[in-house]
Structure prediction request, 149 residues.
Amino acid sequence: MTIDATFWVAVSFVIFVGLILYFRIPEKVRSVLDDNINNITTFKLFIPEAREGGENEIFVSSFLRELGFLAPRTFMISSKINGASHKYIFQEDLRKEFLENAHLVEGPLLEGDERLTVDRIKDNKMIPSLSLSRIINKNLLHFIKHFGL
Prediction:
């Protein structure tokens, strides 16, 4: 009795799916993809001692948000890094999630950087309206270049 190649492909596929389910790969992938804190995927951790204890940083950020100003979500968090547990100041990075949390539509996000002015002056490519900043959301920059806005 001869068995053709499709049979062995089907057997291999069943074994492959069985191994994926046995080692719980979908759960592990889901946990990696959902790796965030309060829907914040990009953030900074500050050592509280570097920010004079951190209470002022948290208070000012919360106060500005309460007054209606845009301010990153900031709070204390316990974290284990390199096997050592410490308390850190957790601060949301100013990216797309920051705008979405404030119910704003994404537009050009500009970040100041002196290197842009110095490098652009040498090549005579400096744009005066953006001379002290750069667009940090690359997808929007691609959109602007593509449609010539």
The chain has three domains: 1-35, 38-94, 107-149.
